[in-house]
Amino acid sequence: MESASNLFDRLRKKVEAQSSRGGGFYSNENLLKLKIGEKYRLRLLWIPAPKGVNRENPMINQYVHRFWDNNAIGSKNIEVYCKTSQYDEGETKAGWDCPVCKEMSNVYKEYSSTQSKSAKEIYDTFRRTFRGYVPVYIVNGPEEDQGKIKILQYTKSFKDFFDLHIFGIDKDSKDGQVDEDDILSINAFTYYEPKDNTVQLEAYDFMVTVGSKTIPIRGKNVQVPDYKLSFKNSKTEIDFGWGDETVENYLKLSETLSFDKDFLKKSTTEELENFLNKYIKNTTVEAESEADDVPGSVTEEVENPQIKKMKEMAKATSRKINDEKPDDDEEEERPVKKDPPKAAKVKDEEPEEPEETNDEKSEGDDEDLDLDKLLEGL
Prior knowledge:
- There is one protein chain.
- Strands 1, 2, 3, 4, 5, 6, 7, 8, 10, 11 and 15 form an eleven-stranded mixed beta sheet that branches.
- Helices cover 25% and strands 24% of the residues.
- The protein is globular.
- The chain has one domain: Replication Fork Single-Stranded Dna Binding Protein (Replication Fork Single-Stranded DNA Binding Protein, Alpha-Beta Complex).
- The chain has helices at residues 4-19, 99-114, 117-126, 156-165, 246-251, 253-257, 259-263, 269-281, 305-312, 371-374, and strands spanning 31-32, 39-46, 60-68, 77-81, 129-140, 149-154, 189-193, 198-200, 202-203, 206-217, 220-231, 236-237, 284-287, 300-303, 345-347.
- It is of the alpha+beta class.
């Protein structure tokens, strides 16, 4: 049986390869809600996936395309899961097989060449946004959370921090690599070792200090979190309090937390195409006529008012889907041999307008602030 250490080494190579490609559920009661003004000491948990579930990565890193549909029956937050999500085996550098990403690439090009307000509005609405999840044990934090196992939901800047310090991927360096001595690797996690059927309880703890800042969003001043991230510079051992049942309980954590069930989500190509056609390309929806019960009456088609508003901002221009891929958030930090990485100070800010780079441009890699939730009650 493959050891956890060898599996993680193989996983690192896989994550490194995926990094060159770029890369909700809010009702789960086990989600850890980071509170402004609090400081957290967390232990990252690499929990095994249940039988029949294909997940090797300790984290679930996903991209979603979202739209708030006021005309929807039931939940109005419509989501599809992008093919570029890290766990989706369909993701390849040669072929981004997400039809929504392809369309957004064309919309971005339109905006770049024409500065069309309509194109920018559509791009900002439908581009992919990032969400990440990882199980954690709260070593220290607010009294109501301390000593519990929960799921940390995090933004793209957290992912960049994890990539740098755990997987050794520096997106800001020329070669994208980090000195091996600066990489925590599997030592950032408590994990199950199948080789000797044990749970390794000693690791480096992950520190999160949650500050705040006020930024203007849609004409309103909104308070958003401002994170400072680090790892402790020495290992410590945790105790779940499970005694002889530690291994048994640890192996059940995915089901206990509903981790894979709630967050390891995929959308089929057909579902993505349906989302594209309904909300982006075809802007008509069926509306019931008052004369539906009259023989010979017809069903009227009316334009989706939300899309209509976008289109009215500028002249609509045709966009064709092509095969071109889109170019793409007083504790002691662990010392590193090189200059401190930029990722060590993390700030969640409103997504900026995409900018061209020498290689590729971001296709929705900015922080997902969930603006609708932030603006509630304002």
